[in-house]
Write the C-alpha cells for this entry.
Amino acid sequence: MTIAIHQVRLIDGMGAVHDRVTLLVRGTKILAAGPSKEVRIPKGAVRIDGRGLTIIPGLIDCHVHLCLGGEPDVVGTLESEQPSYTLLKSATHAQATIDAGFTTVRDVGSRDHSIFTLKQAIEAGVTPGPRIVGAGRAICMVGGHARFIGQEVEGPAQVRQVVAEQVAAGAGVIKVIASGGVLTPGTSPDEAQMTIEELAAAVDAAQQAGKRVAAHAHGATGMKNAINAGVRSIEHATLLDDESEALMKQYGVYMVPTLSALATTAACRSGCGIPESALTKAKSMTKRHQASFKAAHRSGIAIAMGTDAGTPFNYHGDNAQELERMVAFGMTPIEAIVASTATAARLIGIQDSVGTLTKGMEADLVILKGNPLRRIEVLRDRDKIMGVMKAGKFVAGPLGK
Ligand SMILES: [Zn+2]
C-alpha cells in the first residue's frame, strides 16, 4: 500500500522548508518527496490532503531515561521499586514518547539492562514505543554520580570489561560519568569523576565494538577529560569554559544540552519533594547552563537535542519542551528542529535511515496542524499532532485512526 500526503509543507530535517510537496510512503520507507506538480500519485494510494499541515521528520531525543518517571526523588523511587515494576513503568514512558512525535530515543542510563528488554519488546510489536539506542547501565566511578542507574568501576581493565558486558547485553552506545551530578547526593557537579585513563579505556573498548561514547559532564575539567579521551558527545555541558568550548569545536564533539533537566528542577520550591541538595545544585547552575548553551550555539558546536526526560518533573511525552527552551535561548525554530532530527541522527550514527525526509529513508515522521517555524510550541500541543508515523505505520494521532 502507498500513502500519499499531498500539498503539504515539508521540513526536511536538514534545514530546508518546501511548500506544496507530495510525500509518498510505501512499506516502511519514503518512496518519494518532491514538488506536488512533479510527484505522480500511484493509483490506489491512500491520499491525505496536506493543505494547512506540516511534515517534519520523527523527532529524536538523544538523552532520556525511560526507567525514571519524573518523580521528585528519582533515586529513592527507583530504589523502592521491584525491577519488574520499573520495566512496566518504562513501557508507559515509551508510549508517551512516541505519542508526542519522538520516534527515536537514545537512552543513556537505565536500571540494570531493562532498556534492552524494552527495546526488544518494542521491536517485536509487544508494546508501542520509539526506536531505542540504549546504553544500559551508566559507567561511573565507585561512589560516583548516577550509580543508582550505573555500574561502578575502578581502573581501565574493569572499564573495558564492563563495556564489553554492556555491548553483549545490547548496548548501542556507552555512557560514562565524567563529573559529579545534580541528583546523586554527595557528588558535586564541579568535580571530575573517572580518570582520563578510565575514560580513554571506555572509548577504546567501545570503538572496538563499533560503539560511541556519551559522557555526562557538568564541570569544565570533567568535560576536558572526556573530550581528550575521545568521547562523541558531552551531555549537559553546564559549566562550559573557553578551553572546553574550543576543544569541543576542534574535535567535533556534540553538545547535548538537556536544558529541561536543570530548568524543571530549578523551577521547584523547597518542599516539592526534590531533595534539598539537588534543588540547591540545580538553582546555582541554571544561569551558567543557559550561558554555556548560548556560547556553544554562537561558536558553531554541533548541538543535538536531549531532554534528560525522566528526571524530576521532566516528563516523558513532554520532550518538545526542549525545543522551546533552545529557541528561547537563541536558536531559530528551524535550528531547533535540525538539532532534533538530522543532527541528532548523526550523533547517534543512524543518519542513513532516520532524521531526514528524503527518498529511501525510513518513513518516521510527524504531521502537524500549523507551522512550527512560526510557533515552535505547536510541537508540544497534542491537538496539533495529526499523525505520528514510525516505519511507514501511523502509531499516534487522528490520521492513524
Ligand atoms: Zn541523564
About this structure: The chain has a mean pLDDT of 96. The chain is about 35% helix and 25% strand. Residues 63, 65, 108-109, 308 surround zinc ion (CB under 6 Å).
